[in-house]
Design a protein that fits this description.
Layout: E1 6-8, H1 51-55, H2 58-65, H3 69-94, H4 104-121, H5 133-159, H6 165-192, E2 195-200, H7 204-216, E3 221-228, H8 258-261, E4 273-275, H9 276-284, E5 287-290, H10 294-300, E6 305-308, H11 316-327, E7 331-334, H12 335-343, H13 353-359, H14 365-386, H15 389-400, E8 406-412, E9 418-424, H16 448-456, H17 463-469, E10 473-475, H18 482-491, E11 504-506, H19 508-512, H20 519-535, H21 538-554
Parallel strand pairs: 2-3, 2-6, 3-5, 6-7, 10-11
Antiparallel strand pairs: 1-4, 8-9
Helix pairs in contact: 3-4, 3-6, 4-5, 4-21, 5-6, 14-17
Length: about 550
């Protein structure tokens, strides 16, 4: 494999406030180790705090940027419940003829439950909703109108009651005047004052995180830099420091002894050459010093959170040095946990063995029993409700292209057991005349009716039979073909883990990523599958089922 080109590394130069630049100083710092000030009066040049960030206390910014979804659920319930209850009370007390309205608590509770269900259908409470104004407006309005319609329907069907259109209008107006502006204000705070991260270590996990943030979440997170860990501090963990990927920062640590020992992640201590890949990493995540300087760096750079490399989480010296950061109200997480909470996926490429010990993926006996009952009940009800559609779908398939209506194929299930999956046929009969191929977006083999069935997920209705038979569950990783599984198990780390549980009709990967047609897509879906494997629970299953319903309105991804 051809190596990356090497470029000469000049001595770092720092512009200080009225002082001459000094060779050998760290970026953004002078020779004495103090924070450098550029001609504009900013701290460390590009490492300066944003204006909006300086205007808010660090703890306030952290709270606003990391509000849990349950907070928005409670806020919506309070706004909608109060709007429905108060408007109903006003109609009864101030306007004559509205004594037929149902109990105010029933009225408010029904509107809250309907709005909550609609919000989960359209993904209103997902963390990425607050990252874009368009998502806030579209998902809020869709959830609001569907919630009001569901509330009227539930009152009529389940409680034999009715409500006034004025109450529905009051809920819509109140929500648009309070809830949506609050979300837009939270979006402004999150984007105007990004969370400032300090990385510990510069191994493969940190490099992947920096690339990820630069590519997908640049406006919302700012990496101020990284600190390195001396080699002798990690020797007690039994690891070979030279075996880990180097930092490539080419910076000297404190003192000349750095040339003799290097760093724990294999960085070049000579300070002479580094690759273009290393230069890019140091431009996005500059080296700020060593681990012993982590506490003063918190105040100098306004750090909100510290992310520790996965390669260092068992290092006792690293843990001891970062314990003092917790006392200063700075959040400390490892790279795997940070990615899990940020994206709802597990970084399979940099996953350490310790993750499997903490995940406890097999201790789910009570959950599995309850979920099997839920799977069988929902599958039976789904068959009864959708059976009238089956003849119409079958007729459309036969009129569109010759061939059978149902498609049968061997798939890999729980613990590697093979089973036959059933689907409505969406491709031509000769789609795989040349052998097994990945299905891709806008696949030319898909028929006209098949394209609609895939977009609406109606092609997967026959899999309710697989659920009743026990081959599949409602929620889980999608089952793959044996030909592809053998290939992916050799290429992707931990791919066999997705077979610890039953495959599902829908899943965490399906609502976030959709169809995949390559090994790279399979890796992304594996990251989501591992997240579900660790966090699976009834409440998560219900949320996934609600979110899947949104694909019938918005179309499958």
């Amino acid at each position: 494999m051809e190596s990356a080109p090497l470029t000469a590394l000049p001595a770092p130069r720092t512009r200080t406030n009225g002082a001459a630049p000094t060779a050998g100083a760290e970026p953004g710092r002078d020779a004495t180790g103090r924070a450098g000030i550029d001609r504009d009066g900013r701290l460390g040049g590009s490492l300066a705090l944003p204006t909006a960030a300086r205007a808010l206390p660090p703890r306030t910014r952290r709270v606003l940027a990391s509000l849990a979804p349950v907070t928005w659920v409670a806020l919506d319930c309070a706004i909608i419940g109060l709007a429905a209850t108060i408007s109903g009370e006003v109609l009864v007390l101030s306007v004559g003829g509205y004594t037929w309205l149902p109990n105010r608590w029933l009225l408010g509770g029904t509107f809250c439950a309907a709005a909550l269900a609609a919000g989960h259908v359209f993904g209103l409470y997902e963390r990425n909703t607050l990252l874009a104004r368009s998502r806030i407006l579209v998902r809020s309005l869709l959830s609001l109108f569907l919630g009001v319609i569901l509330a009227f329907a539930w009152l009529s069907v389940f409680f034999y009651a009715s409500s006034s259109r004025w109450i529905g209008l009051a809920v819509i107006v109140t929500y648009c005047l309070i809830a949506i502006p609050l979300r837009l204000a939270a979006h402004h705070v999150i984007t105007a004052s990004p969370v400032r991260l300090l990385c510990v270590g510069a191994g493969p996990s940190i490099r992947k995180l920096v690339r990820l943030l630069a590519r997908r979440h640049n406006p919302h997170y700012h990496v101020v830099g990284h600190v390195t860990v001396p080699a002798e501090t990690t020797a007690k963990t039994g690891r070979d420091a030279k075996g880990e990927e180097g930092t490539g920062n080419g910076e000297r640590e404190t003192g000349q002894d750095t040339q003799e020992r290097g760093t724990a992640d294999g960085s070049d201590a000579t300070g002479r050459f580094r690759s273009s890949t290393d230069e890019q990493f140091n431009a996005e995540c500059p080296r700020l010093g060593t681990l012993d300087r982590v506490v003063p760096l918190l105040a100098e750079h306004g750090v909100d959170e510290i992310v520790v490399a996965s390669e260092l989480i068992l290092d006792p010296a690293t843990g001891g040095a970062l314990a003092s950061c917790l006392e200063r109200c700075c959040r400390v997480t490892d790279q795997t946990t940070f990615v899990e909470k940020l994206l709802g996926e597990v970084p399979a490429e940099t996953l350490a063995a310790e993750w499997f010990l903490r995940a406890d993926v097999q201790n789910r006996s009570n959950y599995e029993a309850v979920r099997r009952m839920m799977d069988a009940t929902v599958a039976a009800l789904g068959l009864l409700l959708t059976l009238p559609l089956w003849p119409l779908v079958a007729l459309a398939i036969r009129l569109d292209s010759p061939g059978p209506v149902l498609f049968r194929q061997r798939r890999v299930g729980q613990h590697g057991r093979l089973f036959t999956i059933y689907k409505f046929r969406t491709m031509r009969v000769d789609a795989e005349a040349d052998g097994a191929r990945w299905a891709v977006r806008d696949d030319p083999r898909v028929t006209r009716v098949g394209r609609f069935l895939r977009r609406s997920r109606l092609d997967e209705l026959p899999q309710l039979l697989n659920i009743l038979r026990g081959d599949m569950a409602l929620v889980g990783p999608r089952p793959e073909r044996p030909e592809f599984v053998r290939q992916l198990e050799q290429l992707l780390p931990h791919y066999r883990l997705r077979h610890l549980i039953k495959p599902g009709l829908t899943g965490w990967a399906q609502i976030h990523y959709g169809y995949g047609g390559s090994v790279a897509d399979a890796l992304r879906k594996l990251c989501y599958d591992l997240y579900y494997l660790k966090h699976r629970a009834l409440e998560l299953d219900v949320a996934i089922l609600f979110r899947t319903l949104g694909t019938f309105v918005l179309g499958a991804r």
